[in-house]
Design a protein that fits this description.
Layout: E1 2-4, E2 7-16, E3 27-35, E4 38-46, E5 72-78, E6 85-90, E7 96-101, E8 109-110, E9 119-123, E10 127-135, E11 146-155, E12 161-165, E13 183-185
Antiparallel strand pairs: 1-2, 2-3, 2-12, 3-4, 4-10, 5-6, 5-11, 6-7, 7-8, 9-10, 11-12, 11-13
Length: 191
Amino acid sequence: MTEAQGRYEYNFQLRPFTPITDFRGFCLGGSLFRKPGVLSIVYRLAGNLPSVAWPAPCPVISRCHELWRQTCFEVFFGIPGQSAYWEVNLSPYGCWNLYHFTDYRQGMEEDAALERLTCHVLKEDKAFSLSCQIDMHKLVQDCQELEVGVAGVVLGTTGTRTYWAIDHFENVPDFHSRRSFLAVLPGVTKM
């Protein structure tokens, strides 16, 4: 983690839950950035992108449910010592959602505190990137430390689904486990 002028950056590299030959040679990583009122994330996927099953473009950029059933990227965050946490789902083609949980997989509700979310996508022959800024003003205070879990679900054209995270601690892929919220971002202050 690095700090520059009141902004914290955490670079990550994700690994699949189990090695899958369909995705040999793939690399999924990126960066988290935190500054007052904003949590930014950048995902970078490199490899044989034609073997990825990309979801259809969203006709209207909006909230959607069950994005994890297709290729999508996920961010989980919570305040240390508190059981509540949030989950952000990001589709490669614009649809998104934010959920709040009161405890581990409990009390799931769509969180209306985030009214819209804009992501930027760049897709080339062998590289894909998605960047997004999450407005944190109504979710957590800037001074609060955050524990963050970064994950992705990549679906192959053969139907193979892989689950990617910084690390995996359970017998099954489980992005909700607080043990997997490995990125710790300190509170930030306005400059």
